[in-house]
UniProtKB/TrEMBL annotation:
NCBIfam families: ygfB_yecA. It holds the Pfam family UPF0149. GO terms for cellular component: cytosol. Belongs to the UPF0149 family. It comes from the Bacteria. This is YecA family protein. It comes from Alteromonas sediminis. Transmembrane segments: none annotated. InterPro entries: YgfB-like, YgfB-like_sf.
Length: 197
């Protein structure tokens, strides 16, 4: 699929964690949808342009894919990328993390959140490998994300743990959007400069 084709594909319907997981499994791609979504959000929040296709190579390297993704896998991942762009650019805190639905156990959702955060840190770090130029708030977010990424304690299946998980998910969601608001590029940044005659 050409880069022109990749850019022209819009968001047909919102991809769910389960949708993406099924496609990846079908084509033997060893990757977690949450981690992939986190990487894409991290790349964009760190300053990667929306018109760039660098994310494809990043995901292929992360998934240890030799060669290129097949057409269906690339189509699905392009949908996920476009959704990331749309959610982050539109703002109004509309970003939804690609996590398992509520039918999954707390521990499954908790592990997926950790995968998402680890992916975000990887993608963000590829764009901002030195945080010295970032605000104190962004540095604090990345420190918190580092703590979340190292969480290992299993969660009890009770209401208190459910509330705690939802609070962490909301913090991660809002923090990712904050990073994008500081360092991410708008569509105008990706627009070609007018030619001078």
């Amino acid at each position: 699929m050409t880069s022109k084709a990749i850019k022209s594909i819009g968001v047909i319907k919102k991809q769910t964690y389960e949708d993406v997981a099924a496609v990846l499994k079908q084509h033997n791609v060893i990757a977690d949808p949450a981690e992939i979504h986190g990487i894409l959000c991290g790349l964009l929040s760190g300053g990667m342009g929306h018109a760039q296709n660098d994310w494809v190579n990043v995901l292929q390297d992360t998934c240890n894919e030799e060669g290129t993704f097949n057409e269906q896998t690339l189509f699905t991942l392009t949908q996920v990328f476009n959704e990331c762009c749309q959610d982050l650019i539109e703002g109004q805190f509309g970003l939804n993390l690609l996590l398992p639905n509520d039918e999954a156990s707390l521990n499954v959702r908790g592990v997926a959140l950790i995968e998402w955060v680890q992916g975000f840190m990887l993608g963000f770090g590829m764009q901002q490998n030195d945080l010295t130029g970032c605000s104190d708030e962004v540095k604090e977010v990345m420190a918190d994300f580092s703590d979340i990424a190292r969480m290992e304690e299993p969660m009890e299946e009770d209401e208190e743990s459910e509330r705690a998980l939802q609070e962490v998910i909301e913090y991660v969601r809002m923090s990712a959007m904050f990073c994008f608001s500081e360092l991410g590029k708008s569509l105008l940044d990706d627009a070609p400069s007018p030619s001078v005659h």
